[in-house]
Amino acid sequence: MSPGPMPRPAPSGRTADSAPASPPGEAHQPDAPRSPTGRLLAPLVNAPYALLTLTSLLWAINIVLGRFMAGSVPPITIACLRWFGATLIILPFAWAELKRDAPLIRRHFWRLVVLAACGISCYNAMSYYGLQYTQAINGLLVQSVGPLLVALWSLFLFRDRLSGGQATGILVSLAGVIVIISKGDPDTLLHLRLNAGDVWILIALVIYGFYMAILRVRPPMGQLSFLASIMLIGAVQLVPAAIIEQASGVPLHFDRFTLLVLAYICTGPSLIAYLAFNRGVQLVGANRAAPFLHLMPVFGSALAILFLGERFAWFHGAGYVLVLVGIVIATRARPVPPVPPDGA
Questions:
Q1: Pro residues bias: where (predicted)?
Q2: 302-335 in b/e burial notation, b at 16+ Cβ within 10 A?
């Protein structure tokens, strides 16, 4: 059965089964949680830029650890274990929402399958696979095109155009990423050789850019029930490939370090980061959220300085400033109203 095309937001500004939408090109912002815990966390839950910054930090750590895991746990197996583990952690907290949203899950099941494939199974398996065959500098450079891919998908699917300010902000922050990765030396980029791992990461980013763009048409479920649903579906999608991977004789080594890394991967970049990221995109839209992906190399280099003994140099400072300035420009720019569909 085909999942069918993703619905466009209706001309009236409403999406399927949704509450009234925010201004054109922006995501609807639901009411703040009303429970005592919700009221306590409301300042963070409704602070999209803090949520997106936290996401980039957790994902930057994940990239470093994923590179360390290469050779210990096969890429598809680690992705499968990651999402089954994250599902087990979130399930007790999401159970009430899952029961409440069961009719929505049945009604929108195939849309959830597509979201899980793009945001969970395919993206993560391909990323881990690519990290087996590339260097960190290559992976970070390829990751930096993510915001541009999100903009292209938003334009293709929903006719969302970047404003001049948003495009300028993305390019400025991209320049900062390039300064950090190249260490301020253009020869580094001129002699950079891409490999098969980089191609896998690029394909993964194309798929994830699609996920970011279509989050606006996700089923109108609670945050926890939505994430638990796509986590479980994504983990199940990975099972056949993981079985084939293990049957092919790929070695699997578990030690204390591997188990600790898996514990972090299941919680930090999976559960916490996806809750924060989905909420951030929900509040400000994909195009405004995308430049925050450029914070990953910023956090990655800062972690290397703090924990791996790398010395702070001028290119770190210059790159950090460019990335931050670019993000400020992109987030403060007024979005361009989407082009109405033909005949509207």
A1: 1-10
A2: bebeeeeeeeeeebbeebbebbbbbbebbbebeb
